Amino acid sequence: MPYTPDIVDEMNLLVKFPMHSNMEGIKVHSDASPTVISAAQRLYAKGLVTEEDGGYLTYSGHQVVENAKNALRILTGAAKE
C-alpha cells in the first residue's frame, strides 16, 4: 500500500512531536496551512493525539512516532549499520 498525500501530511506532523517528555506537545494554530490543520484533525480522530489541534501524543501516538522517526532516520541515511 503506497503512502497517500494525507498519510504523508500526518507523518510530517507526527515527527514534529517531542519524544523526550510526555509533558510537551504541539499546538496547530488556526493560521497554519489547511493541510496541517486537516492532518491534526485526522490524527485526533485516529486516537494518536489528545486534541484536534495537536495537544499531546497518546500511547498509540508515541508508538507511531517512534516508528516513524526510526524509518525517517533509516531512509535519510542517518542510521548506518
What is the alpha-carbon Rg in Å?
A: 13 Å
| Arrangement of strands in the largest sheet | 1-3-2
Q: Helical stretch count?
A: 3
How much of the sequence lies in strands comes to 5-15%
Q: Unreliable stretches, pLDDT < 50, 5 or more residues?
A: none
Provide the residue-averaged pLDDT.
92
**What is the SS-derived class?**
mainly alpha
End-to-end separation: 27 Å
Order of helices and strands: HEHEEH
Helix content: 40-55%
- Tally of extended strands? 3
Strand count, sense and barrel status of the largest sheet are: 3 strands, antiparallel
How many domain units?
1
Rough outline? globular
Pfam families: DUF5669
Protein name: TIGR02647 family protein
InterPro entries: CHP02647
Explain what the structure shows.
With 81 residues, the protein is mainly alpha-helical. The chain has one domain (5-76). The protein contains three helices and three strands, in the order αβαββα. Strands 1-3-2 form a three-stranded antiparallel sheet. A hairpin with a 2-residue loop joins strand 2 and strand 3. Helix 1 packs across helix 2. The longest helix is centred in the C-terminal third of the chain and has 17 residues, at 59-75. The chain is globular, with a radius of gyration of 13 Å. The mean pLDDT is 92. It holds the Pfam family DUF5669. InterPro entries: CHP02647 (IPR013468). This is TIGR02647 family protein.
